[in-house]
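Appendix C: a fully annotated inverse folding record. The material below is reproduced so that readers can follow the format used throughout the book. The structure is listed first as tokens, followed by the designed sequence.
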């Protein structure tokens, strides 16, 4: 099993936050549980050299080659098979807007065939990833594609783009980010929704929830109250209310769900 996050080359770091390679194969005949993919602060281009199925509450998506995934505030379930290989390109907040010039809220809680937006070259890239020699070769293939793609960026970075990146690991209150973007609150909200797909307050809620989810996975011995306090919630009840809003479940019940990673003896800390 291979779960790995890789940072991009300097030439792409203003657009790409990281690459995530997920590569595993089940050697047994046990039923493989679906992966409950929790809301996290990211927009992705995800390639699927091997087949998968993504289930939402009211629809299912079977990727042809790759999907563009907007900011999610809901859970989706990833159904994998005995052999699974995928490469996620996790964009910097606002990078997709700078590339396409289209309001990213059209992608909120959506997974769209990337070919419809980025063209038929996507299928060729996915085929190359399938035949790649190793993981490093996969990164080389996708970086060559992205360097060409972002060479056609429509918009230069603005102060708000720098603020959205800093909000991924927030150290200040929202007023500070608004002030340093040199915008009014109304302007900041409008431009943020264009670039990220949700309001600044909603984005910070997702950031905090994702921090709590990852902390529990990496430190399962921690109790939920300590996790709540460490991640900036008022108390456990506050964390529980937010978890129910995003997942429909309590923190304990959502965390206890089976996953492909657990079946292979590990946890999702990426």
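Designed amino acids, in order:
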């Amino acid at each position: 099993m291979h779960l790995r996050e890789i940072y991009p080359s300097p030439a792409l770091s203003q657009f790409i936050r990281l690459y995530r390679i997920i590569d595993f194969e089940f050697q047994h005949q046990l039923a493989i549980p679906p992966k409950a993919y929790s809301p996290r602060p990211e927009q992705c281009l995800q390639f699927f050299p091997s087949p998968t199925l993504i289930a939402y509450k009211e629809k299912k998506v079977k990727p042809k080659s790759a999907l563009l995934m907007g900011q999610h505030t809901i859970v989706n379930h990833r159904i994998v098979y005995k052999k699974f290989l995928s490469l996620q390109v996790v964009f910097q907040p606002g990078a997709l807007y700078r590339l396409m010039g289209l309001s990213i809220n059209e992608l909120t809680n959506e997974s769209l065939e990337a070919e419809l937006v980025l063209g038929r070259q996507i299928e060729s890239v996915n085929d190359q990833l399938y035949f790649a020699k190793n993981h490093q070769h996969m990164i080389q293939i996708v970086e060559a594609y992205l360097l060409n793609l972002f060479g056609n960026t429509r918009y230069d970075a603005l102060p708000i783009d720098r603020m959205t990146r800093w909000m991924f690991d927030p150290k200040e209150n929202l007023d500070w980010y608004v002030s340093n973007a040199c915008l009014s609150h109304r302007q900041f909200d409008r431009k943020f929704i264009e670039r990220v797909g949700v309001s600044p307050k909603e984005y910070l809620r997702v950031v905090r929830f994702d921090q709590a989810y990852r902390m529990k996975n990496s430190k399962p011995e921690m109790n939920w109250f300590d996790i709540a306090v460490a991640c900036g919630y008022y108390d456990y009840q506050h964390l529980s209310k937010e978890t129910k809003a995003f997942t429909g479940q309590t923190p304990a019940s959502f965390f206890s769900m089976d996953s492909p990673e657990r079946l292979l003896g590990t946890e999702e800390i990426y």
